[in-house]
Amino acid sequence: MAHRLILKNFRIVDETMDRIGSVIVEDGRIRELFSGSDEAGPDGAGPGEAGLVIDGSRLNPVGLHPDRAGGLPVLLPALVDLHAHFRDPGFLPGNGLPAEGLPSEVLESAGLAAVAGGYGTVVCMANTKPVIDTPEKAALLKKRSDALGLIDLYPVLSLTRDMEGRELSGITALAQVRGAYVPRLLSEDGRDVADDGLFLAALTEARRLGLPVSCHCDAGGPEAEAARRAGQGREVWSRIEENHGTRRAIALGREAGCHIHIAHVSTKEAVDLIRAAKKTVKSGRGGVDATPGSFFLTCEATPHHIALTEEDARHLGLESHGRVNPPLRAEEDRQALIAGILDGTIDAIATDHAPHTQAGKAGGAPGFTGLETAFGVCVTELVQEPCSARRSGGISLSRLSALMSGAPARILGLGKDRGRIAAGFRADLVIADAGAVRTVEADFFKSRGRNSPFSGREFRGIILMTIRGGRVVFDAPVCYN
Ligand SMILES: [Zn+2]
């Protein structure tokens, strides 16, 4: 007997639609979609049928606004994160274990945080201990994550061995070993490969493999660190660095003829550079379908760069709780990101989830915990709902779904069955209340990282349930009537 899940009476939203209807899931995949309320549904959608029935009209979490879209919760494709730090494999005693004795994150806590945030698929960066620089290490991490059954994890492979920038990593062995793990994205994370020749060699490998390379364009490096220690405005330095890094990644990507994905764009100049470069590139559907073997460009922005500025960083502490790479910028940079989202220059929203221990964060470790707040922050900051007067000129929930699910799935080459709600697609879904307001309480995060710049702030948009392959993997405490 097929494993069946019926989701009826929902406002169904993905990048191509926004309508009331029902979805029938069978054996982990979406079998059929029906428009209208349950009366219009098929016989099989009746509650008498075997399988789990979730009726949106009877889902009544605290705070669901009854005046919004007929009072129905939203059914969206599960979110896809192109950029997270899971800190696992981690920090063993004598190898960077923090004073309190616990790592800032492990696979289990990161997976729970991801599903609580509405994510079904996550790419994690390679800057762990040890660095994920061979297909074997990546495969082992994926296997451990698969055993938890929470999310689909795709560990990134670094471009160089041990991320030292001296020789290419195990990417040269990729696709040559039968049954070996093939990543969906390559990246050297926080420091792009300094040597042009080696960077180009890595990009040429990426072209051979048909894989995108996430470029962080924020080299950090000894010069930037020295400038920061000398009190010479790390912010100013890093802006130059990011703009330079973006220009360089685009130029080398053009030369190699590969897919460059610019991570966490944060300056208005970088948005302009990407906008101009994209005009020279032919792209497929939604601007996120690469032609194999030719230069292609996509980019992401983070919720914190969309929502916060240097003013917030000052309040949080420039060298402690407000520190992130790239730094929170000026209001005009933030506006440039929103303009980039509105005109399609920015393809995706990624969390750059970077958990730290409290001690680590107080000591200036850069980055924010982000998986559990991304959806609410983006709904609040970007989405213009008919019932919300908070912001004019925003985007639709459907466009947000493109940014958080559709486009990232395509960038990873998973667009054929993930990132949308359509017959035949995997039943990776989230149920959300796009209107309910909640205060961020970091103490209740599933993530071990409590370093959220949004602690205590109110956001609209709550994840109620996350479904992966037709099975419920997260269910927020709600009351049913
Ligand atoms: Zn990162």
Morphology: globular
CA gyration radius, whole angstroms: 22 Å
User: Percent of residues in beta strands?
Assistant: 15-25%
CATH class of the largest domain: Alpha Beta
Order of helices and strands: EEEEEEHEHEEHEHHEHEHHHEHHHEEE
Overall helicity: 25-40%
Instruction: Give the overall average pLDDT.
Output: 87
What are the distinct ligands in this entry?
Answer: zinc ion
| Record field, number of beta strands | 16
Q: Which structural class should the secondary elements be placed in?
A: alpha/beta
Please indicate the count of domains.
2
CATH architecture of the largest domain: Alpha-Beta Barrel
Largest sheet: 8 strands, mixed
Give the low-confidence spans.
44-48
CATH topology of the largest domain, anyone?
A: TIM Barrel
